[in-house]
Amino acid sequence: MRLRFNGWVYGSAHPRRVDKRTLCSNEATGQIHHVRREQRDPLSIEKHTAENSLIAALPPRCRANVLRSCEQVELQLEEVLCEPGQRIRHVYFPIEGFVSLVAVLDDGGALEVGIIGREGMVGASVILGVDTLADRAVVQCAGAALRMSSASFRRLCARNMALRMRVGLYLYASMAQLAQVAACTGYHVVEARLVRWLLMSRDRAHKNEFHLTHEFLAYMLGVRRVGITEAATALQARGLITYNRGDITILDNAGLEKASCDCYERGNLIYDAAMGLSCARSAR
Amino acid sequence: MRLRFNGWVYGSAHPRRVDKRTLCSNEATGQIHHVRREQRDPLSIEKHTAENSLIAALPPRCRANVLRSCEQVELQLEEVLCEPGQRIRHVYFPIEGFVSLVAVLDDGGALEVGIIGREGMVGASVILGVDTLADRAVVQCAGAALRMSSASFRRLCARNMALRMRVGLYLYASMAQLAQVAACTGYHVVEARLVRWLLMSRDRAHKNEFHLTHEFLAYMLGVRRVGITEAATALQARGLITYNRGDITILDNAGLEKASCDCYERGNLIYDAAMGLSCARSAR
DNA sequence: CGACAGCTGTTCGGTACCGCACATTGCCAG
DNA sequence: CTGGCAATGTGCGGTACCGAACAGCTGTCG
After folding, report:
1. Do B140 and B28 fall within a single domain?
2. Quick one: B131 and B24 in the same domain?
3. In terms of domains, do B57 and B155 share one?
4. Are residues A93 and A21 in the same domain?
5. Lesser CB count within 10 Å: N end or C end of chain A?
6. B48 located within any domain
């Protein structure tokens, strides 16, 4: 069985031992249809700036420069911002929604390797001098975001040290988390990984409920849908979550955090260490 | 059972379902003992420059600058260049040997997430403004390398656009490969992953034999030693490799490449695409 | 030469996840 | 109201890998 998400297709689960599979070609090449609002008045945008922490942490003048180049867009659920290897046209600073980075294998396998909410940005690797993204970027939770053409972003970074530093640190944190997630995938059972994933989503959604089908979760974690169903059922039985046709609600945050593998907490530590270091640095 | 590598300890395999494990504290804190040769005369170093492709690709003046700041060291087998989170004091440009990056989990699990030979460098993330490494860097194959203090490296990068660009691209390639490996770990059977690993090592060792015990391989791939033994036995039975007490010899390169998962080839493509892009760029 | 340590091979019971197939439930459009 | 579809639940046999334990085999060192 295969699923379609706004035009792109993926295998339900994947072969651990099947060798090849030819699918995952984007029929109709995932229409990327932004609901582009007209440019807001500066005040309205300014209001939002504090809500992407990457931007918020910039010195005022620099922040103003960044904002001038941004427009606000509404990210659509399951919209694909960029396919792996494709030229990235815009970088995104999520405000409400969040985005997942998904590594795609030739044989149709896929695995989430990063998750980007208002604490970060999509396309940070542009500062490395490339204009492609290594992974597929899928919107996981709809909502507002700021965006900027990658050319503008590169120009701004070239001129602005504070911005470049900040983005660099974020990139480092992303890499560290990527490694962490890789190890986690190999070592921890589906249930623990599911919990980690729910907690990370919660942190980025800033609320205790979000819309996610088992099928989608399975795709993200690289397991069968049934595996998710089993794990989710167990969590529900323990009173940690409830869900109903894709609407998941977290009931017991503390309990969930206990049920998760260390990787959740560790991921947060990694981020704090990297980004906090920047504070120490700029305070010097 | 636990192993000791030059002073640091790791769990033999690891728990897929065990939740915690307290080990992996480095007893005796992995003595890092470089066999530091006295500074060679410039000609001798110059001779080697072409052998690290990152350096070799730099414009002549820039290359000379880099070399002036480098000293040559001999990497010892299983030496730990840097522990995760530790301050990185030197960056390394391997010439003969190669180095693995290993993600370490709290519960003792570990997984190789990158491999660095003469095509790259250890510590590229320094250009992002951090002075720590996210993963453990272990020497996998002894041999010569150039090294430079990370402070010098940062200074050079700040001044030198070509160097910064080149290292940036390399960093991007590393990230892309990391994501690739993460997915591979989740989807492919041990044997295929082992083969991928052997091929990658071969490419970096520039020869068809190297010294690696099953135990070490198991550690790298995050599986039990027995898993490696079984896979290796099968490969040997098929006439693709032979091995004897840690000395592995590749007999049939073509056969091995067929036995590997696509991730091997794909990793190479990723690297070429990223680094080749730089050529196009500088040719402009 | 004998003891020992490091490396490899083998076995065994257990389990997490696989692919596949099918049943159930709730929502929505016609 | 009804048929259809998306989302979820369940059951079954298979397999890749796990932990543990033990049995050679070989080189080294006292």
Report:
1. yes
2. yes
3. yes
4. yes
5. C
6. yes
Q: Of all residues in chain B, what percent are helix, strand and coil, respectively (each to 5)?
A: 45, 25, 30
Residue B34 counted as domain residue: yes
> How far apart (Å, rounded) are the C-alpha atoms in residues B243 and B59?
42
Predicted local confidence at residue B51, as pLDDT: 84
Task: Evaluate whether A202 touches A250 at the Cβ level (below 8 Å).
Answer: yes
Find the mean pLDDT for residues B178-203: 94
Chain B residues with CB under 8 Å of A83 CB are none
**Structural domain of A40:** 2-186+263-283
If asked whether residues A89 and A133 sit together in one domain, one would say yes
pLDDT (tens digit per residue) in A256-283: 999 999 999 999 999 999 887 544 444 3
Query: Is A154 in the B-facing interface, judged by CB distances under 8 Å?
Result: no
| Average pLDDT of every residue of chain A | 82
Prediction pTM value = 0.85
For residue B57, what are its two tokens? 């690709």
Averaged pLDDT of chain B:
82
Residue A229 CA to D7 C1' — how many Å?
11
Q: Tell me: do A27 and A145 sit in the same domain.
A: yes
- B-proximal residues of A, 255-274, CB under 8 Å: 261-263, 266, 270, 273-274
User: Is residue B125 within 8 angstroms of chain A, CB to CB?
Assistant: yes
Q: What percent of chain A has pLDDT over 70?
A: 80
What is the pLDDT confidence band of residue A16, given thresholds at 50, 70 and 90?
A: very low
- In this structure, chain B runs to a length of 284
> Bridge partners of A80?
A138
Q: What's the pLDDT at A48?
A: 52
Whether nucleic acid strand D comes within 7 Å of the CB of B222, the answer is: yes
The widest CA-to-CA distance across chain A, in whole angstroms, is: 56
Q: pLDDT tens digits for B92-138?
A: 999 988 999 999 988 878 999 999 999 999 999 999 999 899 999 99
Which residue among B115, B144, B160 closes a domain? B160
The reply to whether B182 touches chain A by the CB within 8 Å rule is yes
Which among B127, B179, B266 has CB closest to A106? Answer: B266
- CA of A88 to nearest chain B CA: how many angstroms apart? 14
Residue range B155-181: mean pLDDT, rounded: 94
My answer on whether A100 and A239 are in the same domain is no
Q: Is A179 close to B135, i.e. CB distance below 8 A?
A: yes
Domain containing residue B90: CATH number: 2.60.120.10
Contact flag B187-A16 (C-beta cutoff 8 Å): yes
CA at B209, C1' at D30: how many angstroms apart?
Answer: 33
B194 CA → C6 C1’, Å: 22
